[in-house]
Amino acid sequence: MLKSPEQYVESLRALKIRAYVGGEQVDSIVDHPAIAPHINTVAKTYELAHMPEHQDVMTTISHLTGERVHRYTHIFRSADDLVKKIQMLRLLGQTTGTCFQRCVGLDALNALYAITYDIDQGEGTDYHERFKRYLRKVQAQDLMLAGAMTDPKGHRAKRPSEQEDPDQFVRVVKRLSEGVVIRGAKLHNTGGINSHEVLVMPGTGLRPEEADYAIACAVPADAEGVLFIFGRQSNDSRKLEGGCDIGNPRFGVVGGEAMVVFDDVFVPNDRVFMAGETQYCGTLVNYFATWHRANYGGCKGGNADVLIGATAKMTKILGTERNAVVRDKLVEMIHMNETTYASAIGASAMGTPLPCGSYMVEPMMANTVKQNITRNVYQIGRLSHDLAGGFLATMPDQRAIENPEISEYVKKYHTANPEYDVMERIRMGRYIENMTSVTTMVEAMHGAGSPQAQRIAMLGQAAIDEKIEMAERVVNGDDDVEGLPLPGKREG
Ligand SMILES: Cc1cc2nc3c(=O)[nH]c(=O)nc-3n(C[C@H](O)[C@H](O)[C@H](O)COP(=O)(O)OP(=O)(O)OC[C@H]3O[C@@H](n4cnc5c(N)ncnc54)[C@H](O)[C@@H]3O)c2cc1C
């Protein structure tokens, strides 16, 4: 079944999610104005799946049931599936101009599909069949899933088992015949507050004595003991004010992140997909992170398309659009954007099968995508600030425009090219301000792992010794064909 946007909203309304916004518990997340923009963004993922022109990228056929399902609940079965995912992300980024939140759950779903297969092969367990039963439900109900990997982590130089507070990483505190009880928290949870379920995964490699931390499971968002505490975003209170200062009027800034607390939550066995198999945690993190890092070339590509559009419009409003230097700066923005998109498509097209039959992106390219995102998104934002001008930081607000004593001054002295309404300049400027805010930039920096995490992965995959051998072969010329008249052949 493909949920409609309305069904998504109504299904959230039916959940009794314990959520806190601005320090206060909210009665209904669906009706809260701080959460509504994020719900609207996710609703677009449901809406586009019903449009015939987007069916090919937004939906696919389940390999489990043969039914048409949302691509956000699909297991990547081919390199083409991986490419289509990136195309879907760019489309959604272009449509919403922000984060649409369902990617973490999708990659978590795929990581759990793959790791449950691996664990069963190595340990003779039956996690994979259990997981497939869960996946059938996710596909049948077209669920919105959040992915929760990042633990609070406490003292960064200490392992989970060495922390003064053992709850700094989510752990099993009780094992029962019918399931487990988990305690801890996950931070930065994208879309968690407006999801149906949260997929919990360990966030680091673990040692055998850390078995209680090796827990992967699916927890309904309204399970007993689960609570969400909403984060603040740059300019979030403007959403409540409305008017021209809002930036992106319908959709959120990044993914409406929350911290999710598991205060002794019971998880029944049929929702547990790893419980103590520490030797598989590193691989699970790696599966998830590698898929997730490639995504950024798609979603941030779509977001940057909108930002580049807003910036180009601003040059028209300012009357600078024909200037060669200005045009070259737009080209620079486009170049950086297309570079990361091309790498994401490349990583996907070069995907290879895993033992479970699903497809993994090419890891070096996937990590390179995300490493470039930590720079290019800032650089694109920098050029947007450059071209849009200082008014981004100084323009008066909606209240000034509404005050008849000063409104005409504001409008008169902010009018640039008179062909364009001054309010258009202000609205575009506010969108640029929002989409280049700290919240947005930090997402590009840290989402899918900090830049350091990618560099560690890249060094591991770079096969530097093989590169040294390549250099030696070229420089020494040892494999030259005898008798060919090669210039520059070195003697001795
Ligand atoms: C907007 C946003 C959305 C997110 N969504 C999700 C989500 O949905 N689900 C989820 O699970 N996670 C999510 N994350 C979390 C994200 O994966 C983490 O922020 C990221 O992994 C970095 O972890 P941290 O923030 O705890 O950084 P910290 O651990 O606090 O590290 C901060 C910095 O310290 C340095 N550092 C730390 N350890 C080392 C080391 N070993 N070697 C060298 N330097 C080091 C690095 O410079 C690092 O960037 C999200 C993050 C953001 C910002």
Structural notes for this entry:
The structure is a single chain. The N and C termini lie far apart (72 Å). The strands form four sheets. The protein has a six-stranded mixed sheet, with no helix packed on it. It has a four-stranded mixed sheet with strand order 5-8-9-12. The chain has a two-stranded antiparallel sheet with strand order 3-4. The protein contains 17 helices and 14 strands. It folds into two domains: 5-277, Butyryl-CoA Dehydrogenase, subunit A, domain 2 (Beta Barrel), CATH 2.40.110; 284-467, Butyryl-CoA Dehydrogenase, subunit A, domain 3. The chain is α+β, with helices and mostly antiparallel strands and 492 residues long. A hairpin with a 2-residue loop joins strand 6 and strand 7 (179-189). Helix content is 49%, strand content 13%. It binds flavin-adenine dinucleotide. Flavin-adenine dinucleotide binds next to strand 5, strand 7 and helix 15.
Approximately what portion of the residues adopt beta-strand conformation?
Answer: 5-15%
Rg, Å, rounded: 25 Å
Gap from first CA to last CA: 72 Å
Number of domains in the coordinates? 2
CATH class call of the largest domain:
Mainly Beta
* Lateral arrangement of strands in the main beta sheet: 2-1-10-11-7-6
What oligomerization state is this entry in? single chain
What is the CATH homologous superfamily assignment of the largest domain? Answer: Butyryl-CoA Dehydrogenase, subunit A, domain 2
